[in-house]
Amino acid sequence: MTTDINSPPSPSHSQEALEAPPSYDDIATASAGPSSTTEPFVTPSHIAHLFSRVPNGEILEKGLSPLATAISMEKVGISALVTHDARLSDPRILYDFLLHQAFQIPPIKVHCIGAHTEIADRDEYVTNDGNPRQRKKGEPDRIIDFDFWIDLTSAIKHENNHYNIQMPNVRPHVPVHRGTYNPSYAALFAPKPRSPGHEYASLNISSFTDVGRSVTSSERALWTQWAVFRMLKGLPSFANMWEHSEFWDKHKDTPAGQNLVSLRERFEAETDPDLIKEAYEHRALKDWCEAYCADPGILKEFQMVKGIWGWDFEGLGTAIKTAIQSTGYQSNDLRVKFETEGNVIIVRPDNVLSKALDKFWVFVLCWAFMIYPFILLFKRLHPRGGAKWGPTSIQYSMKCYPPLPSTFPNESLEAAQRRLPEILKEHPEVPRFAVLRPGPQGIHYLLGRKEGEWFREWEDRIRTATRLRYKGQLEGNPDVEGPPPELDGY
Fold it and tell me: What residue ranges are annotated as transmembrane (predicted)?
């Protein structure tokens, strides 16, 4: 996964404006003063996802089947890990394998690249990073000024605490590949049309894995835009687009937005509330594993994406760009990207054709001899072709707020602080210098790091790396837990 922050810099900004750091919503301000209220705490809607866990998320447990933990995988490209292990045709082993993958934390980094373009006025040989090459007269040449990155994995990897890892199953209203060539809704939410008159099939749903109608092109575009917005804002995959006005106000009156509203209204009006509740809380991954293994498709695949959320990646990317530009560096080719490696897990069947198509040279030859279009038709039209399954994901939060052990609604911060020494003795998962704040279940503590705090630590080193035209990984001091800085302002 790559989240790219590439808005062009504005030449009209003053030097003072570039020096000014970004404003962050400091969540800790809510806990700065003592709390003595007895009224129920209401979590602000824009950060409610930091306190919540998805109801239909799988229960993550270690001690899984040894067979599931011994599955070998092959890296394909930057982001994909593929396996054809025959043992994964057993739904129980497949289920354990997917749970095991939740504990394999994907590396994540922020990657900063600055470059400019030169046009040579004569043929010449130049050396870049020790590699000689020829520049021809009149041809544009992209020159890398700096290329450095910072590892962010420590913000999501916690030795004794996995609260920030969630494995949500797809909900009925979200279109994904449900063993289908195109993304589809659940049959419970949007059943397939059974006639040109737009009459719908019976709603006698036998399973929550039943497939509904495919998305239209406008609906696909809406959900794609929502996915981009969600990643930039650091929202989890289980966030609802209509709960975020910054996005929904722009799209609710579009044809796709109005169609989604009508589908939801019809779903809520015609479906038993108990069935709706069960559909949104049912942990269906075992059902999906059984459905995938029962699929006779030769070229089927089960795909699971590992997503990162919890930070305002768009705001942080803008802050990093501002720090770089404050050194006097100006370029229209300045990129700040958040990159994740090995974040797509793909399970494919153990057969010759499926394995062959993983080979890049076979893929190229199939296109060169116009064989691949027929393979696509076979996958789409033949029942033995095989389609994609993507009913679950793994979500890692860069920051979240688990409830403090033994807390209760309306507990005060003072009472929680008094209990903290005993809690630290009995619960190694709680950070030694826990940042506490009230939340929906009582008192919660910060797990992970705030993006503003991280930026404050790395800002000067980012400026230095820019001035030195550094290429490579920026190393920082080892993470040492300590009390949060108590500075007034920035």
Answer: 360-378
Cα 212 to the chain's mean position, in Å?
25
State the pTM of this model.
Answer: 0.84
> CB–CB of 291/390 below 8 Å?
no
Do residues 243 and 260 make contact, with C-beta atoms less than 8 angstroms apart?
Answer: no
Angle at 233 between CA 342 and CA 248, to 5 degrees: 125
Phi and psi angles of residue 368, each rounded to the nearest 5 degrees, phi first? -60, -40
- Please tell me the distance from the alpha carbon of residue 241 to that of residue 226, in angstroms, as a whole number: 7
**Residue 172 pLDDT > 90:** yes
**Three-state secondary structure along the chain?**
CEEEECCCCCCCCCHHHHHCCCCCCCHHHHHCCCCCCCCCCCCCHHHHHHCCCCCCCCCCCCCCCHHHHCCCCEEECCCEEEECCHHHHCHHHHHHHHHHHHCCCCCEEEEEEEEEEEECCCCEEEEECCEEEEECCCCEEEEEEEEEEEECHHHCCCCCCCCCEECCECCCCCCECEEECCCEEECCCCCCECCCCCCECCCCCCCCCCEEEECCHHHHHHHHHHHHHHHHHCCCCCCCHHHCHHHHHHHCCCHHHHHHHHHHHHHHHHCCHHHHHHHHHCCCHHHHHHHHHHCCCCCCEEEEEEEEECCCHHHHHHHHHHHHHCCCCCCCEEEEEEEECCCEEEECCCCHHHHHCCCHHHHHHHHHCCCHHHHHHHHHHCCCCCCEECCEEEEEECEECCECCCCCCCCCHHHHHHHHHHHHHHCCCCCCCCCEEEECCEEEECEECCHHHHHHHHHHHHHHHHHCCCEEECCCCCCCCCCCCCCCCC
Return the higher-pLDDT residue of 330 and 19. Answer: 330
pLDDT the model gives residue 28: 38
Domain boundaries, the chain: 2-25+109-158+313-340+450-473, 28-45+403-448, 66-103+162-306+342-397
Nearest CA to 391 out of 184, 158, 87 is that of 184
End-to-end Cα separation, the chain, in angstroms = 31
For 432-439, what is the mean pLDDT?
92
What's the residue count for the chain?
A: 490
Q: How far is CA 84 from CA 68, 88, 89, in A?
A: 13, 8, 10
* pLDDT tens digits along 460-471: 999 999 999 999
Give the model's confidence band at 409: pLDDT under 50 very low, under 70 low, under 90 confident, else very high: very high
Tokens linked to 205: 């749903």
Q: How many Å apart are CA 280 and CA 419, to the nearest integer?
A: 36
